[in-house]
Write a structure and sequence with these properties.
The chain is mostly beta strands. It contains no helices and 20 strands.
């Protein structure tokens, strides 16, 4: 089933990467401008900009700071959203150039890959791998919703959910365009549509 778009926002750039939700506003990263934008979810107005050299793929929010997959080679760059200051960087391991999706919770984070067909769960404390979840294909954007992890598949234009306890698929939905970054605002998903340069909101039934 293809999801209907509830809201569309014009993206500020042309190389749409990550999305994150801070409780009130959207954060969106662009690979061409190497900027992370804070956006009003109602109007799409740019409220702030942060420079992040070599934005590569997804963006996450840990409740205080932004996490961006950036750099060559890829790594996680943790940024203070108020000052735009880089606080630290984290290595993504041997498969770093395959890393794409990113999502952070209170005690762990998840990394999705383009070619490995899986999502890795890692510890926030020491970055050790805690587990993995098989995916249909690539995992470009990630979002946690309660006890599930959802991901976008750019090639198939899909949104797919996985139960974190069983690892079983919860559902899959078609998306308009080519989805990259993904986040959850408590009511709906937002995803970056790379093909149409839009940021779209959808809600599974």
């Amino acid at each position: 089933m293809k999801l209907q778009i509830e809201r569309k926002l014009a993206a500020p750039g042309s190389h749409l990467c990550g999305l994150a939700w801070d409780g009130k506003t959207l954060w969106h990263s662009d690979g061409e401008t190497s900027l992370v934008y804070r956006l009003d979810p109602g109007s799409g107005k740019v409220l702030a900009k942060i420079t992040c050299p070599n934005v590569r793929t997804d963006l996450g929010y840990d409740g205080a700071n932004l996490w961006q997959i950036a750099g060559r080679p890829k790594r996680i760059v943790v940024i203070d959203p108020a000052e735009g200051r880089v606080l630290r960087e984290t290595d993504l391991g041997q498969e770093r150039e395959n890393a794409c999706g990113l999502c952070i919770s209170e005690s762990k984070y998840w990394v999705g890959f383009k070619q490995r067909g899986l999502i890795e769960e890692r510890s926030l404390e020491d970055h050790k791998r805690l587990g993995e979840y098989r995916t249909l294909g690539r995992a470009d954007g990630l979002a946690q919703v309660e006890n599930s992890i959802w991901y976008t598949d750019y090639d198939r234009s899909l949104l797919i959910g996985i139960d974190l306890d069983s690892g079983k698929e919860l559902g899959r939905y078609g998306l308009s365009g080519r989805p990259t970054g993904l986040c959850w605002d408590g009511l709906r998903f937002w995803y970056s549509d790379y093909e149409n340069r839009m940021i779209n909101a959808v809600r599974p039934k």
